[in-house]
């Protein structure tokens, strides 16, 4: 990311080390200049590394939070009509129902049990 | 009951079981009642369509009460051809016959698909609803000959029957139908579950509700159904106390065979539809009802019928097979076997793997009921 752009009209050059009062003209400041340039480069590198680490930590944090909430999300409200559903958990997020009354009858073919008005049990004998 | 969805089949009737988290529907099928239970309920329409297709297919293939079914046409065609002629049958009928032969081998011939002629001779020669409604005391029952399942040869889809053999797949076909229908229905419910019952032979697939599917196992203890000759389809009885035991089915299947239904009278005797292949007459053992849980419904169906026929040996054989069972004697006493819960609402320990071989392994004696004296003693506990 270090580019030297050609100077454009209207640009004002920032004072260089030649204008810096700490470095009087005529003296040999090349050593100080190299030291300064090296410090600048290493500073830029340090900032860039810190930036990369920050980005990596952010990405890892977001991923971890996503995973956590995917597995620990509170149960979704039951679907319409599924009044006796309780959280059971399936892959698709549909919750297993909890059934209290028998839903079918195993008998010699011909007997079925249903629920009549008021929850009464109705036994139906069917031979066909 | 929740809405069934846009693809609801037209001849199913919704059933109120007191829960809205499941869709429940029922219709007449295969000479009995089919019931389907689905969760989530918004998939019910799609599931019913899938079940319809399977039931229609099985009816076309294996119903002996339909003159245009494949098995009826097969009987007719083989009656006109030289003895031991072979025919190519459909894949579905081949599977149904293969399952029946596997059940015959597994039960040592106590469940035998060649009882068809004997059953007809006893008077059960049409759909039960079409049998005479008055008792037929004048006509003596004909003791039929049972040629034996070894007389049936099935290689792939090629079927060879001895002359005069009539197949009755009743001991396994309903169970197979439940298995097929449940599998097809489960494909419509990627995250949910289904229960399919054909006349009380129940198969479940997909995910069970919490704690399993609650199922009432019924034998009407202390209550008699309509007497033969006075029965009528769909007769309603007043609300009663629990007729049996509620169990929870987590997977697999549960089937019941009983001599207390599909009864008729002929020649002064009460007939029922479970024929002992050894005598050609209705089974006369100590059990009036047998309910068995197994990995699949065809196996449960065969085991329940075999238990009725086996009589005293049934408990030993079921225990040796590791199949949870509930046997009800003619005096009403209930005997529980294997992983069958004693308490109401208990979970049935259904075996994870099938006990019945996939296909007959040969013509030798199979892994049938052990003879007396060699069987492992297994004393069922008696429920007061």
How would you describe this protein?
The complex is a heterodimer of chains A (128) and B (384). With 128 residues, chain A is α+β, with helices and mostly antiparallel strands. Chain A has 1 helix and 3 strands; from the N terminus they run αβββ. The termini of chain A are far apart. Chain B has one domain: ApbE-like domains (T-fold, Roll). In chain B, 24% of the residues lie in helices and 24% in strands. Chain B is built from 7 helices and 21 strands. In chain B, strands 1-2-3-7-8-12-17-18-19-21 form a 10-stranded antiparallel sheet. In chain B, strands 4-6-5 form a 3-stranded antiparallel sheet, covered by helices on one side. Chain B has a 3-stranded mixed sheet with strand order 9-11-20, with no helix packed on it. Chain B is globular and about 55 Å long. Chain B starts with 12 loop residues before the first strand and ends with a strand. Classes of the chains: A alpha+beta (128), B alpha+beta (384). At the A-B interface, strand 1, strand 2 and strand 3 of A face strand 2, strand 3, strand 7, strand 9 and strand 10 of B. Strand 1 of chain A pairs parallel with strand 9 of chain B, so a sheet runs across the interface.
**Sheet of most strands of chain B:** 10 strands, antiparallel
Low-confidence stretches of chain B: 1-8, 221-242, 361-384
Chain-averaged pLDDT of chain A: 68
CATH superfamily of chain B: ApbE-like domains
**How much helix, percentage-wise, in residues of chain A?**
25-40%
> How is the main sheet of chain A built?
2 strands, antiparallel
Pair with the most extensive interface?
Answer: A-B, 45 and 73 residues
Number of strands of chain A: 3
The CA-CA distance between the termini of chain B, in Å, is: 37 Å
**For the residues shown, what is the average pLDDT of chain B?**
78
- The largest beta-sheet of chain A arranges its strands as 2-3
Class computed from helices, strands and strand pairing of chain B: alpha+beta
What's the oligomerization state?
heterodimer
Strand order of the largest sheet of chain B: 1-2-3-7-8-12-17-18-19-21
Could you give the order of the helices and strands of chain A?
Answer: HEEE
Order of helices and strands of chain B: EEEHHEHHEEHEEEEEEEEEEEHHEEEE
